[in-house]
């Protein structure tokens, strides 16, 4: 392991443990990645099929821009290809994908995109708290990462660092894992607020 | 204690502590088991009446295919007979039974079985994320494990590793405790999603 | 401190920390007691006004059958009189009073008493899982412990070890703190189930 | 650092960690302050932009009555000016501002103020449990702390130690951080109760 990969492994395992404790990575769901190199693109991504609350820094594998690995043993997450696509298109340094409930409920209620506006927490998502309409795109679920990646890219806007995959989960990205985490936490709060207040609408 | 039983006791206590922390084993509710031998069937099952957050590896008792024990002191869970039946019929290596709320609410709302389809989390339950209709069976509650066992067996399908007992709780099984856990966590998520989105249906 | 009182203090502090972590003793709310002597009645009750997540074994005070203390310094919970009344009338060895949300919501929705029936969790409350109608009494809130105590006694049945105080909280009792805890946990689950399924009723 | 500032830093970091664990400071949201001096007013306030679950006692900065600092390096929370205004007008020794969900949902449902009455938890908010009508004021969100401060002051009543900022969060204050915490915890409970029971209203 290179020092960069070792450090990425430590950070990825720590973030996974955090999200697992929040109930956002039930079963073996979800996966996180960090960019190691830009040219050519190389990412460290969490391995497939492990309990995300029990990852070690070694449970990480290097993939290329297609999500493919040359690792003879470790299997990257099946969604590594979408991580790589997001990192390439959005220029993100870290991509987090979790199965929090509120984002998936929101995607079900607003399948054409979830509109958020005039909420303080939008600042933590990189937008303005007033008069700034944000629409988080929703794409249909697929097992083909090229299909998902094309749908992502078709709806991509540089100022919306998140993607909802219907009946599946949420992707959020940022410069590094810390900033992606803050955006994810704010977005999850916003979507819970949106779902909760819809219930009470007259 | 044999080494196998001692190891089973350690694993069962650890899993119980985990589920208790999630609020799924309130009071002294729920029970877990692992298969020790297949022929004749012998299972290690958690003892009756103890706080599941405070089990020790010794709080485990060996039962046969009828859920009966020869242990002169320890009392197995009253539901040990259903654990043994599930292990025999489904060929499971571990059976977990918890009183999470969402499964019992779902069983109340869909008493003829809970249909799940086109949801990514179904992969963590051993099924496909698309075009694969899953119906989790619901059986009426009973204190007679033969009655429950017959109802379970009547609705058993090898590709649905779970059973909802109405107004009671959920059983999930798998090759070992880890895999049963992952299936349970995914099923609980799916049932929360199902209940939450029903509330918002037009 | 007598050894009995010291042990009671340790147990009361530990149980308070547990309930605080569950969100059931927000602010400085709630109070717990254990009976030290029956004739005349003496109880160890948690002191007033402290954060229940930060109690020490010393934060306990001895009260008599009226909830009064001879302690020159420590102030017992204002509700000590009701604890003593419950201990006397029900013969309980421990009384727990917490401000969990579901019991107070249930008391609001069913002000004439909350009916529970045909639910497995009733076994953990000391009743049968089938064909056994349980009505948890609801009394109006009051700051006068004699008024509350009279309302409690008027509706007391030996087979219902709990009392809901409207717009306030829940009392549950048992032989000791452990058994009171198990009954409380089961009752809270039952009331959450009752509230959740009412929401979905046609 | 003066001893007072060092102690304030320790207490602020500990309270932030507590609220973060409760999910009330997602992303980098929320900020806390304690008064160091009254004349002229000086407060220690948490720095801007950090994860509130990872603050150290050093992540605190001194501001004046306008929320301005002379610190050459550290940036106070953008809301420091409102903290100072509340401390001045209400005479509070500590001000806590968090993004718990229920207060923001309540502000959305009752934009003219949230009425609370005849609830035991009001005692933990400094009011009576009976026949004492409390209205928690709601003000529109703003990024200008003078606008927010003026709206706060216009609706200020000495017996209501809280302010809801619509689509943003809640401020609660008290003599010190501990008492502000207890009031916040009680208010959050009260607003959850209010929101939950509204859902069930006929």
UniProtKB/TrEMBL annotation, chains A, B, C, D:
<feature type="binding site">
    <location>
        <position position="97"/>
    </location>
    <ligand>
        <name>Zn(2+)</name>
    </ligand>
</feature>
<feature type="domain" description="Class II aldolase/adducin N-terminal">
    <location>
        <begin position="10"/>
        <end position="195"/>
    </location>
</feature>
<keyword id="KW-0456">Lyase</keyword>
<feature type="binding site">
    <location>
        <position position="99"/>
    </location>
    <ligand>
        <name>Zn(2+)</name>
    </ligand>
</feature>
<keyword id="KW-0862">Zinc</keyword>
<dbReference type="InterPro" id="IPR001303">
    <property type="entry name" value="Aldolase_II/adducin_N"/>
</dbReference>
<dbReference type="GO" id="GO:0005737">
    <property type="term" value="C:cytoplasm"/>
</dbReference>
<comment type="similarity">
    <text>Belongs to the aldolase class II family. MtnB subfamily.</text>
</comment>
<dbReference type="Pfam" id="PF00596">
    <property type="entry name" value="Aldolase_II"/>
</dbReference>
<comment type="function">
    <text>Catalyzes the dehydration of methylthioribulose-1-phosphate (MTRu-1-P) into 2,3-diketo-5-methylthiopentyl-1-phosphate (DK-MTP-1-P).</text>
</comment>
<dbReference type="InterPro" id="IPR036409">
    <property type="entry name" value="Aldolase_II/adducin_N_sf"/>
</dbReference>
<dbReference type="GO" id="GO:0019509">
    <property type="term" value="P:L-methionine salvage from methylthioadenosine"/>
</dbReference>
<keyword id="KW-0486">Methionine biosynthesis</keyword>
<dbReference type="GO" id="GO:0008270">
    <property type="term" value="F:zinc ion binding"/>
</dbReference>
<dbReference type="InterPro" id="IPR017714">
    <property type="entry name" value="MethylthioRu-1-P_deHdtase_MtnB"/>
</dbReference>
<comment type="pathway">
    <text>Amino-acid biosynthesis; L-methionine biosynthesis via salvage pathway; L-methionine from S-methyl-5-thio-alpha-D-ribose 1-phosphate: step 2/6.</text>
</comment>
<protein>
    <recommendedName>
        <fullName>Methylthioribulose-1-phosphate dehydratase</fullName>
        <ecNumber>4.2.1.109</ecNumber>
    </recommendedName>
</protein>
<keyword id="KW-0028">Amino-acid biosynthesis</keyword>
<keyword id="KW-0479">Metal-binding</keyword>
<dbReference type="GO" id="GO:0046570">
    <property type="term" value="F:methylthioribulose 1-phosphate dehydratase activity"/>
</dbReference>
